User: Fold this.
Amino acid sequence: MYHPDVIRHIDSCPALVLNADYTPLSYYPLSLWPWQTAVKAMFLERVDVVAHYDREVHSPSQALKLPSVIALRQFVRPNEYPAFTRFNLFLRDRFRCVYCGSHRELTFDHVIPRAQGGRTTWENVATACAPCNLRKGGRTPREAHMQIHREPIRPTSWQLQDHGRSFPPNYLHQSWRDYLYWDVELEA
Assistant:
């Protein structure tokens, strides 16, 4: 019987990238490198290999187990504040409409409409489902008689990482589990 890693397609063998302190560079999206990038970083001595897949790649003279977890040798200091992007906005609001809590048909809404001088900033843009956004229209929440359940704020990178832990990826390789979610309560 073959181990699942041996029959896995080689392009389905990304490496989990940890910072020099052995925490993931990012939880959401999860910091993954293609196997080719991980192997190149190994040979350039920029990473330490923490765990391997059972899958190997071969050259004429050498066989190499693919790395499944790598740690950077130099610490990368995360930015204090994340970029203002649609994805990060949705992550800040936990992929929920700030008006009704729906997770369907998400878009973004200017709390104070641009027509009324509202700007496109962290503090004035919120996640809204399409029906709520349409209902609110070019009005403020007060004018539309809608309650905003979470006031928009400028999040820190740490806050977004913390929110990202609530949305695990569809697939986690067994070798990654010791390095992810290490601050959750252990089972007895």
